[in-house]
Amino acid sequence: MIDAEDKLEDGSDREICRFDEFALPQPLLRAIEELGFVSCTPIQAESLPYGLSDYDVTGQAQTGTGKTAAFLISIFTKLWEKPLQEAPDLGSPRALVLAPTRELALQIESDAMDLSKHMNLQLLSLVGGMDFEKQQKKLEKRAVDLVVATPGRLIDFIERRQINLRKVETLVIDEADRMLDMGFLPDIKKIISLIPSKSQSLLFSATYSDEIRELSKSFLNNPEKIEVARRNTTADLVRQTVHPVERSRKRELLVHMINDGDWDQVLVFARTRHGAEKLSKQLTKDGIQSVAIHGDKTQGHRTRSLERFKKGTVRVLVATDVASRGLDIKQLPRVVNYELPDVAEDYVHRIGRTGRAKEKGDAHSFVCKSESKKLSAVEDLL
Q1: Residues 51, 21, 207, CA angle at the centre, nearest 5°?
Q2: Which of 34, 45, 113, 359 has an alpha carbon 20 to 30 Å from 255's alpha carbon atom?
Q3: Angle of the 102-115 helix axis to the 26-34 helix axis, nearest 10
Q4: How far apart are CA 144 and CA 97, in angstroms?
Q5: For residue 330, what is the DSSP state?
Q6: pLDDT in tens, 204-225
Q7: Do residues 136 and 127 lie in contact, with contact meaning Cβ atoms separated by under 8 Å?
């Protein structure tokens, strides 16, 4: 959650909307105030009135614009205002948030814990790459108000009949475009089929393709369409620079820029798991402390590496696109595309890790001759 921009794209003034203008529960307002947030971001100001009024919503917003808080505030308000009149069933959440990656799911859970800390609500994340039995025991131990899940792990619990979705009142699909990119469409359709048709549904996406439109039509009921960014745009506060360079000299250029610019924190994106691991080890040999996170790493290792990067004990975090969503690194000054992504849309999400919360950021892309078509695809997208 960040303060709203006070200017529209045409330069005119935007009316500032405050959280205390909404009829939010006092415990929730208290948590929002303790987090230091006063004014809504554009996506929050636009979507909250509809979310709080039980309308279905489709929202398009760049990463780092506060869309997570937008749907969590709506969910928690309704859970508070409509308490269950009977004993809750184990394994029957009242709200469900789907996220494409474990990093994003865990970040949403963390944000949810911050916002609901005075509300005595039960939250649980069900994500792959972490101990299944521990998640199972938590689900069996107490009734859960909100589940944040990745599609694959949720399907595992559904097939084992350890969770049912018959009492879900609110469904949120976050980063829908990434869901489709990762092949989760069949899982999403199965999950949707198990949720009551009368439930409220909210779909958020950083980019808005024709496939997303078709998905939204399949289960949303006359949704309110919220768009606070031009289609497939990148963050306005991110300065984007392309560096033409021979493939064999990319590491030399990266080392030079880190040392010459005295960079103390940089997120570097590589295309493959092997490439990320190799680059991280080479940078460390070059005297630049670096760690890598990618799909071959355990969740524990990825979490520890990210914490080291946030605390500044390592200067460089090398990641594959598994980390292009859900990473919440406050005031990350710069991102480097060591290799351009295979999917042009991923460029938007990668560089969205910087230029957040009104802080300016830099995005550098190292482009060799063989990547010219990928560069053209990014330019076309934007």
Answers
A1: 40
A2: 359
A3: 110
A4: 13
A5: T
A6: 987 777 888 888 988 999 999 9
A7: no
